[in-house]
Amino acid sequence: MLIFQWLWIALSSAVMLPLAAALATGRVPRWMRRDSTPGGLKVKGIAAFVLYAGLLVPPVTTLSGMGPEAAELVRMVLVPMAVFGGHGLILGATLCDRFNRRESANWPTVNSGCEVGG
After folding, report:
1. pTM of the model
2. With contact defined as beta carbons under 8 Å apart, do 56 and 12 qualify?
3. Domain-embedded: residue 116
4. Which of 28-42, 71-85, 89-103 has the highest mean pLDDT?
């Protein structure tokens, strides 16, 4: 039954690694670049790497030959940390992008013709 763990590793690597690398380098579709800053995309790429690490914990603990109690303890600690950490990074990057977009919409620009402080 170890084939399932190897399939898990192969499929999660095939999906998450290209996604994380594309986000971290900024090579994403135009609609994603429009909604996010380059820094926000990098943070989301790091979050995808964190989620990928969390995906690898269960099959690696099974394949490593750890005792069942030790494997459960490692899974119980590392998987929630990776899931909540990755989603927290995504949420933080999204909120930062939204707040920055809202602030830049409220501030007059040089060419807007508004008198600032006047």
Report:
1. 0.80
2. yes
3. no
4. 71-85
